[in-house]
Records
---
Amino acid sequence: MPTTQLPNTASLRPDFIWGVSTSSFQIEGATQEDGRGLSVWDVHCQTGEIKNHDTGDVACDHYHRYREDVGLMKTLGVQAYRFSIAWPRVLPSGSGSANEAGLSFYDRLIDELLAAGIEPWLCLYHWDLPQALEDRGGWLNRESATWFAGYASLIAARFGDRVKRFATLNEPSMFSLFSRSLGTRDGSSEDKLHRMIHHVNLAHGAAVDVLRANVIGASIGCIHNRQPCRPSSASEADAAAAARLDVYWNEAFPEPQYRGDYPPSMRAAIEPHMRPGDLARICRPLDWFGLNHYSPVYVKARADSLLGYDFGDKPANVALTPIGWPIEPDAFSRTLQDVHARYGLPIYVLENGYGDSGQPDQTGAVIDPGRIEFLKAYISAMNEAASKGVDVRGYFVWSLLDNFEWDSGYSIRFGLTYVDYASLQRTPKSSFGWYAGLIKAMQR
């Protein structure tokens, strides 16, 4: 590939890690096979509220096609693969008896990755809470920290001989703000939000301790969705709404996890749910900061909504992806610099990507120059941050495959690989070849 098509990577470390990311519910399918229990997302899909009434029942059928998907990763040349365990696949009731068939699936996946020379990065939780635990109060129940610790203990004992990289949670700010008590979509109570935030933080801390105690050489972090929250107008009300959302979106989890306390503006609201010693239980030693970044969020005030905000108009002079997300690579560079200055740990970018609805052309090829230009710009912005001293050590594209995109179902495609959901055939896009070329050039 001509070097003119590649981003500037001169400031990245020689041992920089290139990877791809997925999550269990979004790709695995096989939701009713081999003893898997229901997750909250299975139940939510049954409501018919997902776009086009899509479900995760089949998704990309990764459960049966994982060898093919590992083969795609090997062709890409990635050094690492970040995936998540489906909690209800290994513990159908969320706690209690383990499901051997579910554990065996991940044994096969991990072994396949290692045989291909790809390091497994295992995320314990990417939003698919067992419905059996939701029925017991879910994250609103303080016992959720104990449930999560038990689940982490199972995973550590089973896979810790082969997996050393662990993330406790993916984007806790996203599933607390937007999927709270998913079964009821209860957005009416700020007190419930604060209770959930605290319990999820306790669960994180408990899992860190379990992993440290049971996995020799474990390297542990948490994955945070971090986007600047900006007012959509010059009004004071919009500025105040953006500032408040910024605290809940960007600070409610990393601040207690990495620095030992909640942001001052929300501390009083959390205190009714705290017990002595809780902050110490949350702030456990971590090895790295996992960053997911896409684009800034533009916010307007809305008095009748939770936290007093809504999403506002984007600036007219900002380019957008086909799904309407701003393309602002400078914001990515500044976010990396902010995380470095605030937390002082190595950073791994574990999600960054471009959504569209691209389809094959008449030849069957999927040509996606927009994705290539996006990745090129954002990787160049990451390099700029590295040139300013930011300790960024890895970059994982979201995603290896087109997949189930939550409430949008299958209408949005983030993959480097096109998935025909009727046949489940995989077709690498032009961005797949571009990313493979970049990785190959970096390894010379």
---
Amino acid sequence: MKVGVIMGGISSEREISLKTGEEMLKMLDPNKYEAVPVVINKKEELAEKVRGLDLALLALHGAFGEDGTVQAVLESLNIPYTGSGVLSSAICMDKDMSKRLLRAAGIPTADWLCWNHIDEFSPEALEELGYPVIVKPSSGGSSIGMTKVNEPDELRAAVMEAFRWDRSVMAERYIRGMEITCPILDGETMPIISIIPKAAEWFDYDAKYTANGAVEQVAVLPPELEREVRRIALDCYRTLKCTVYARVDMILSDGFPFVLEVNTLPGMTSASLLPRSAKAAGLTFSGLLDAIIAVSLKERGVPVHVR
């Protein structure tokens, strides 16, 4: 089976995608797959570079990767790919839209505002939300362009920074608590991971990608709370029509979970949260990739043939 690891891309998360892709290439079992790197530098080259693949293993992050665009191109070329489909990918990438759907489904998520153009920005609109807030690009990831705003004087600069990265910007009520993530594979929840930044107040870019920036370990939660977290994670997965695998990020505040976002293509380096959860479940990185590939092929209606 010829598996192309699709990485790079054109988003602000390109370098993170390249790291994910390199790790996947190292961990794909050579006895099962013919693994080839497919580095995307511009949109126009995708169709040509993926020709002849039996499967596209997506290591992309951000726009033209997680937002359904690449998935749509691959479907038009009849090339199976890993992860969620076009609709789910697009919805989950748009944090404003996904939060609206989650809120409509009764799933707890922090209050927020969204501006689709800088001309819509109004500091007065935040009076009901209160401070502090997290300002971030609506369709970004990896905490790029994200700022914690503690008082009104800091707001405009944070909004301008977020608009550098996206055409739509959110201000979300900051909820103090412990960040956790609940990965899901083939409709089943995996071990919940807690995230405690070592130096930062919240799980920002440096905490995510600096060595030893955060303590990430299997969360030990009271049984009732753990059941609630897993239930909410699955409700998110189903509400947003995710398939194959995803990662649901939450904040636990006074024992109550609030959903932050749902990632349809979470980071996949050996130090990333999903592989860490899989390891806690007794699944190696290679085994995790095997499972993602097998479930993706099943989801796309393709018989599994590995050499």
